[in-house]
Design goal:
With 339 residues, the chain is α/β, with parallel strands linked by helices. It has 2 domains: 144 residues, Rossmann fold (3-Layer(aba) Sandwich), CATH 3.40.50.720; 144 residues, 2-Layer Sandwich (Dihydrodipicolinate Reductase, domain 2), CATH 3.30.360.10. Helices cover 36% and strands 24% of the residues. It contains 10 helices and 15 strands. The strands form 3 sheets. It has a 7-stranded mixed sheet with strand order 12-11-7-10-9-8-15, covered by helices on one side. A 6-stranded parallel sheet has the order 3-2-1-4-5-6, sandwiched between helices. A two-stranded antiparallel ribbon has the order 13-14. Helix 6 packs across helix 7. The chain is globular and about 55 Å long.
């Protein structure tokens, strides 16, 4: 069988990691083109890939010979244009979150897929491929703890990048909890409230960190998310589901190493980075996408999921600025996506 030729758009931290992943851990594919506005960096990345072309224009990389699918890891504002270029060539796409920074851009992508009559876009919400999250999903679907009432979530980073803004706590971090809540519950998010305590002294000047985000689901479940991107001690993501007859919690022992209890003490390592904590999830995500893309299909969260997350994020940003509960405004799910 011939290898699936992939164009990788964006060669920063995530793009470079995906290039390595496709070469080292994902079978059935090879990188044939890379694109990045930084000409020197893209040449350096391409130099390590036999026969791969280096481009500063994403459209040129997408149209390069041998490209069968596109993986987009560029900054969010550049996603829509690259996705639409790929769809014009009817190429499968795996796009890192967010699909687009705003729901209007996501709707334009939905319309492009509607015109094609099939789904080609998958969004990189990698937690759906994490083994612990998959177990929690199966437990909830089986009703093993009864109907869910609450999801308690923590999302902590040791420190935030220099470019991180207060809005990005919602649009780039909590967006993961938005998607996992929708997926775990099988329900849409209908309203958002954002509470802001005093900022941590470790937060850069002007950054509102931490925050508490409350999500309401269409079925009456309450999801609370503590987002704290300058906690100082490491990277920690946990989720506890509280049902009518039990609870289930992931993210402390599962996926974060071994917690040792001995002689009245408890100790364990804490991962420092999301690429380490979710390394296996990223591998499984790309592996399944490659297999599906070879058939022209989607094997995970699709463009509708990207739109829904963008709509909730928009409501969350409004709630953060106003300090009041804000309802999510979203269009009905189109038939192409199961509506």
């Amino acid at each position: 069988m011939s290898l699936l030729g992939i164009a990788v758009i964006g060669t920063g931290k995530m793009g470079a990691d995906h290039v390595r992943r496709i070469g080292d851990t994902v079978g059935g594919a090879r990188v044939v083109a890379v694109a990045d506005p930084d000409g020197e960096r893209v040449k350096e990345v391409a130099a390590g890939l036999e026969g791969a072309g280096a481009f500063t224009d994403p459209a040129a990389a997408i149209a390069a010979p041998g490209v069968d699918a596109v993986l987009i890891a560029s900054p969010g504002p550049a996603h829509e244009e690259a996705i639409l270029h790929a769809l014009r060539h009817e190429l499968p796409v795996l796009c890192e979150k967010p699909l687009t920074p705003d729901p209007e851009g996501a709707l334009r992508i939905l319309e492009a897929e509607r015109r094609l009559g099939r789904r080609l876009v998958q969004v990189g919400f990698m937690r759906r491929f994490d083994a612990a999250y998959e177990r929690l999903k199966a437990l909830l679907d089986a009703g093993d703890i009864g109907r869910p009432l609450f999801l308690h979530c923590r999302h902590r980073n040791a420190s935030s990048p220099s470019f991180f803004t207060s809005d990005m706590l919602i649009s780039d971090s909590v967006v993961h909890e938005v998607d996992t809540a929708r997926w775990l519950l099988g329900e849409e998010i209908t309203a958002v409230t954002v509470l802001s305590p005093r900022s941590s002294s470790a937060a850069p000047e002007g950054l509102r960190d931490p925050r508490l985000v409350l999500l309401e689901s269409s079925g009456g479940v309450i999801v609370d998310v503590e987002i704290f991107v300058n906690c100082g001690f490491g990277y920690e993501v946990t989720c506890e589901a509280v049902g009518e007859s039990g609870t289930a919690r992931i993210g402390e022992a599962d996926g974060d190493g071994v917690v040792v209890r001995r002689a009245g003490r408890r100790s364990g390592e804490i991962t420092q980075d999301f690429t380490t904590r979710f390394a296996d999830a990223y591998d499984r995500q790309v592996r399944r996408w490659v297999a599906a893309a070879a058939r022209g299909q989607v094997a995970g969260p699709d463009a509708w999921d990207g739109y829904a997350a963008a709509a909730v994020s928009q409501a969350g940003l409004a709630a953060a600025r106003s300090g009041v509960r804000t309802e999510v405004r979203a269009v009905p799910r189109p038939p192409l996506y199961g509506g």
